[in-house]
Amino acid sequence: MPHTLDGRRTPFDSTDPNSRGRVALIVLFSSVVGTLLLMAPAVASQLQLQLGLNPSQTGDLFSAELGAMSFASIPALWWMKRFNIRTMSTIFGVIFIAGNVSSAYIDDYGTLLAVRFLTSLAGGSLMVLCMSLAAQTRDRNRVYGLWVMGQLSFGAIGLAVLPHFFGSFGIGIVYWTLAVLMILVLPLARFLPERNVTADHDGNDETGPTRNYVLRAALGLVAVLAFYVSLSGVWTFVGGVAAASTIDTETSSSILSVATVLGIAGSALATVLGSRPSTRTNLLVGYVAMTLSVGLLAGMPGLLRFTIAALLFKFTWTFILPYIMSTLSGLDRSGRVVNLANIAIGGGFAIGPFMGGRLVESAGGYGTLIAVSAAGLVLSLALIIAAQPRRIATPVVTTPVPQMVE
Length: 406
What we know:
Strand content: under 5%
Number of strands: 0
CATH topology: Growth Hormone, Chain: A
Distance between the termini: 36 Å
CATH class: Mainly Alpha
Number of helices: 15
Number of domains: 1
Structural class: mainly alpha
Order of helices and strands: HHHHHHHHHHHHHHH
Low-confidence stretches: 3-7, 197-208, 392-406
Mean pLDDT: 79
């Protein structure tokens, strides 16, 4: 174990949950794993163009990826307690690399769907591990903040740079980039403990669940599900909205990359504001602004309206999330509600593209998808307000994405 001469741990001690190496692993592993999902608009458009996928197939593909990342949390509860963490993370990293390299050369939709599911299952396992390790750190707020910023930064760079190479290399450039990035960060596995250490919980386990508690928890979880179904449906097909409005792919990708950067500002603003003026007020303002951004995508938005909609959408998305998690934390007495929220997030991310593709196909445009997503946001707002306990903790940036922030 690396220690200084006076017995103190070094910044790169693999047994120290707060070491720089451990924090770097948490941030970089999760950022690489989440990059593709944050690039969903550009990737979806290129897949439709290159492989001739229809909206339903595109939605199903992303639904499979997101569903696999969500499902990974279930077996993770078992393997993280029983196997060598370094060995398992290396295995999942290798699967992630092999899956992405293979994806670059697959033209058959069914095969691609299966390979992307397995690749995302491996990536989701690494994401769950990162979340578990982040919960063990001393300054969790800072680590979760870096976790969010890392994913958004990788997504913004990917959206800004990779579409420029689609003409020469096709969608393969995205998959190869993810494989190379994982190759570069995989050596950080040496900063992992050989065995996982269960994080301490601050919740009060002495009080059993009451009927009111169960009802509020259920409302909060449904609110999270509705929120993510709405936003993932719009985010996956926002590139298609741009194309239907005769905005070229490179221009829309650049706009969306800037929007992703604004996502960092949204979560930072929520952290600075805390509960001022009040959690309920901030939730109301955020939801109204996000619903407005979705409405701005209706019809055939010009470049200016599309830009405003995209920037406002991503800013409010990450602004709202800390307040949603604050509400769930206020309800959580044993840690179960927040754990269930991870499944609701992954489920919402999977259902959104699945639903969106069929709505676009059946309506012959994006109007129905936009209307349903806006209604979903209104429903989510009503449920999360109803779920709020009397006292709400000050929100912090603890967004569990999925499994990605996009």
